[in-house]
Amino acid sequence: KEDSVIEEKEREESGLEQQDETCSLEGPSRGDQTNTNKAGAGRGEEAMGECAASPVDLDDMSETSPVGILSKDRVTVLGEVAPVWVPDAEAQVCMKCGIKFTFTKRRHHCRACGKVFCALCSSLKFKLTHLDGKEGRVCISCHSALIKSSSANLIPLDGLPPILTSTGVKGDYTVEEQPSEMLLIQELESGRPKPLVFVLNANLLAMVKLVNDVNRKCWCVTTKGMHAVGQVELVVLLQCLPEEKSFPKDIFRHFIQLYRDTFTKVVKHLSLSLFGSSFFGSQDHAGFLYVRSTLQSLQGLPLPNQPYLFGLLVHRAEVAWAKAFPLRLMLRLGAEYRYPCPLYSVRFRKPLFGDIGHTIMRLLVDFRNYRYSLPVVSGLTVDLEAHRTCIKIPNTGYNELMKAVNKSNEHVLAIGACFNDTADSHLICVQADDGQYQTQAISIHNQPRKTGSCFIIFSSALKASAGYLAKSSVVEGLMVQITVETMAELRRSLREMKDHTVTCGRLDQSESQELVCVQWVEEKCTVNKIISPIDGKSMESISSNKMFQKSEYKENGKIIRWTETGDNPKGAVTDSAEHNRLTERIARAFCLALCPHLKLLKEDGMAKLGLRVTFDSQEGFVAGSNGQPLPAQYLNALNSVLIPVIHSRGRKRDGEPIVMELIFYILEN
After folding, report:
1. Using 50, 70 and 90 to split pLDDT, how confident is the model at 551?
2. What Å distances lie between residue 27 and 146, 427, 636, 669, CA to CA?
3. pLDDT band at 25 (very low <50, low <70, confident <90, very high)
4. Helix axes 30-42, 44-53, angle to 10 degrees
5. Measured distance CA(25)–CA(93) in Å, rounded
6. Mean of per-residue pLDDT scores for the chain
C-alpha cells in the first residue's frame, strides 16, 4: 500500500513537471538539447585529442586558468530528469522478466527510466538528481548503468590517477598515465617545492605535497575545480604514519564523491561529510568535519584560492556530536591538540566522546532521529567577561533569530552561538571516562580576558520570591535564569530588534550584580573572499549565495554553469521572490547567449566568467573574465539577450540602486 501511494504521488508530480516543461517558453527545447548533446558526443574523440595536447598553466593555479584538463564523452541524463512513466494499462507484464501482473504481483515504476517492472526486477535503489538526491526505486538495468556512470573518474582500483608533468617549456604540461608511486613519494620526500597535480576527472584536480604543520609531518591534499560546480575548495592535512610509503588515495575518492553530490550536498563551515565504507583502513573513521581556518598559522601550506575549508577526520563515536552540535566537537579537538582547533587530522586516535550520557543538550537536541536541534544564528557570539556578559546578534540574523524565538518553548529560549574569534578563550565540554561532562576553558593566553560560549539558555523558572533579579551560571554553556516577566520583556525586545539588559544577582546585594547584555550589531562581512573575474574587484562586502542549477546548458562538448550570485546587502528587495526570479532569468539569458561560444571562450582561457548588472537611473551590465571585459563579439551576443531582460524589471521610484554580480564556469561535458 505504501509503495502504491508513493508511486501515485510521484506519477502526479511527474505529470505536472512534464506539463510545465511543455508549456515553458524559456530555455532550450528538448529537441535542441538532444541535437546539442549529439553534437557534443560526435566530437568526443576530437575534443579528447585537443584537450590532451593543449597546455595547462599550473604556474598560476588561479581560478582564471582553464578548469578542464581532459574531456569525456557525453554523459547520459539517466537519473537527472524525471522520466515519462509508462501507463499501467500499457504494461500487462514485467518489462524485464515477462511475468504477468496480478492482484498480488504488483506493478512498480523505475524512477530512472519510467518503465514498469515486478518487485523482484525493481528492488534496487539509487540516489537520483531529479529526486533532489533522495533514493528512488530503480530497475536492474538502470542501476547497472547508473553505477557505471557514477564511477566516471580517473582513479584506478590499483595505482594512482594520472598526473600533470611539465615538458620543460613554461606553461606546457602533459598527462602521465600510471605514474610510479614509489618514485613520486621519493620526489616528495626529497623536498619537491611544488605539489604533485593529479587528474581526478575532466574538471577536478588534486594537489599533493608533504608539509610540516605544527611540527608534524603531514600529507597536504587540496582540490582545484570545486568552485566550478558551486562548492568551496577543500584541504585535508593528514598526519603521516611512521614509515608511510603510499598515498592516502581514499581522499581522492572522497573528493570525487563530493564533486558528484554537488546538487544535493553543499559543503559549508561545520558541515559533516560521511564515508560510505571503511576509510584509511578502519571502520572507526566516519567522515570529515569541514571548518574554516581562524587563528591557526597557514604558513608553508599550498592552499587553493578562497573560499576553502579544512577537513577534520571524525571518529565514528563522535558522529552524534558532529551532526547535532559540531562546534562542541571542533572546540574539543582544540583542547586535545591546538586552540581553537587543529587543521590536521590524526588516524587511529581515541574518540573524544562516547555515549551521549547525561548532558543538558539532551533537552535541546534529538540525538535519535535528528528531527530537531539547537537553532544557531549566523554571526551570533557570546562574550563572558568579569561582571558582564555580552550577546552580540548581527542585524542580518534577525530572521533566523525570529524562527528560533517562534519555535521555542514559552519558558525556555535556547540559541546556539558561533565561534568567537575575538575571544581569548572558549568554554568547552569534556567527557570523562565515567561518561560525566565537565566544563572547562581553553585559551590562547594564560590570563584570558574574554571567554566565548557555544550557546546560551534563558529559562523563566526563577520565582519572584527567590530574592534574585536573575541568576547566571555556566552549565556546559551559559544559562541565565529569569522571571516570567523578564522573559516576556526579553522576547519583546528581540522582536522589536532592540537592545536588552538583564541584571543578575540578589536584590539586596547591588555591589555584586552582573549584567547580561543583548546587543544588535552591524555584521562585518569578511567571509566572502572572492575576487571578481570582471575587473579584479574584491567582493568581500557583497552578500553572496551559492547557486545549484539543475538544468545545464551544453554545446560543443562544454557546459556552462551559474555557480554564485552576490547582491549589495542594503534593502530588503534582495530577498524578494520577484528579485530572485529576475536573477534566474538574467542567468538563463547569459548562458543561452554564450552557449555557441563556449568552446572558443574556454580555449582562450576564459573558463570563469562574471556578469555585473546595475539597476539605477542608468541600467546596464558589464561582463568579463581574467580581470578584463569580454571581447566585443561576446558582448554583442549578450546585448541582444540581456538588455530586454534587464529592462523588464521596470523603474522603481522609491527603491535603492541594486548591483548584482553573477559567477559562471565553463566545464568539460
Report:
1. low
2. 27, 53, 20, 19
3. very low
4. 60
5. 38
6. 83
Three-class DSSP category at 607: coil
Q: Tell me how far apart the alpha carbons of residues 643 and 649 are, in angstroms, rounded to a whole number.
A: 11
CB atoms within 10 A of CB 495: 13
Which is more confident, 98 or 131?
98
Q: Residue 624's CB: how many other CB atoms inside 10 A?
A: 22
User: In degrees, to the nearest 5, what angle opens at C-alpha 267 toward C-alphas 263 and 271?
Assistant: 130
The SS3 assignment for 140 reads helix
Phi first, then psi: give them for residue 195, nearest 5 degrees: -70, 155
Instruction: Read off φ and ψ for residue 410, nearest 5 degrees.
Output: -65, -20
Coil, strand, or helix at residue 370? coil
Find residue 620's DSSP bridge partners: 614
Lowest model confidence (mean pLDDT) among 161-175, 225-239, 422-436, 452-466? 161-175
Higher pLDDT, 654 or 202: 202
3-state secondary structure of 149: helix
Domain spans in the chain, listed from the N-terminal domain onward: 88-152, 155-354, 358-524, 543-668
CB 178 within 8 A of CB 154: no
Count CB atoms within 10 A of the CB of residue 428: 25
3 state SS for 481-511:
ECCHHHHHHHHHHHHCCCCEEEEEEECCCHH
Give the pLDDT mean for 253-259: 91
**358-524 matches 88-152 in CATH topology:** no
Q: What H or E segment, with its residue span, contains residue 393?
A: strand 388-394
Residue 13: pLDDT over 60: no
At CB < 8 A and 24+ separation, what contacts does 164-168 make? Answer: 164/56, 164/58, 164/69, 164/197, 164/199, 164/205, 166/58
Dihedral Cα 359, 361, 367, 371, nearest 10 deg: 160
Q: What CATH architecture applies to the domain 88-152?
A: 2-Layer Sandwich (3.30)
Average pLDDT over residues 128-157: 82
Lowest mean pLDDT among 49-58, 87-96, 229-238, 609-618: 49-58
Interatomic CA distance for residues 537 and 526, integer angstroms: 15
- What is the CATH architecture assignment of 543-668? 2-Layer Sandwich (3.30)
Q: Are 221 and 208 in contact (CB under 8 A)?
A: yes
Instruction: Outline where 552-647 has alpha helix (H).
Output: 577-594, 598-603, 632-647
Q: Three-state SS for 572?
A: helix
* Residue 468 cell numbers, joined: 534574585
pTM over 0.90: no
Q: What is the rounded distance in angstroms from the CA atom of residue 33 to the CA atom of residue 659?
A: 32
- Report the CATH superfamily, name and number, of domain 358-524: Domain of unknown function (DUF3480), N-terminal subdomain (3.30.1360.220)
